[in-house]
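Inputs:
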Amino acid sequence: MPACARTPEPCEFMPDDFFRRHSPDDIFPHNHPLEIDLGCGDGTFLIEMAQHYPERNFLGVERLLGRVRGVCKRIQALGLTNAKVLRLESQYTLEWLLAKHSVSRLHLLCPDPWPKARHHKRRLVQQEFLTILENVLTPDGEFLFKTDHPEYFEWVCEEMDTFAQSGGKFSQLPWPADGEQDALFYPKTDFQRHWESQGKTIHRLRYQR
Ligand SMILES: C[S@@+](CC[C@H](N)C(=O)[O-])C[C@H]1O[C@@H](n2cnc3c(N)ncnc32)[C@H](O)[C@@H]1O
């Protein structure tokens, strides 16, 4: 084992090779639809989804080792076999690690809005990201996005419009509120709970490829 390698946590997905694409059955033993929680944080959403949908597989992507360890502990304690965490950079994961057209739903929930103008280039949702997303989603795959930040919400709407105008494949879907007909089972994330406790509104967007 190279000196820099570490032993993966139980329930962590540690790729055998970071320079090849992985299909869903490289990650999970059961070939169920694969959903990705990009920047999964403390894993609250990932775990509740995995408990609710045993017939789907959930991979959290998170760059902070402490958070990865925490989520893995919770997955293991609950005995979930359909949830894992990958410690890797988000965009690299979508662009290079996952097989093309392998992801049925991609959740990007309360990502850092990078509010300062000089940091806007760090925002994840940009034209390049949308091209990568289009390539990794299944033909009818979905992209679900939430933010507490009104200006980032407008930014994402504009990026999606620009992408559509240049031939991108996404079309917006309704996202019925809790209690409405066809409401999605969609647990709140840790950050959503935090922002709502401060009186902030959560904005959401749902697109289909
Ligand atoms: C603002 S938190 C939101 C966490 C969670 N989605 C929630 O709503 O509670 C953003 C998370 O994404 C992770 N993150 C940020 N940039 C990332 C990147 N480029 N690659 C992987 N993880 C990233 C952070 O470490 C953090 O845990």
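The chain has seven helices and seven strands. Flag for discussion at group meeting.
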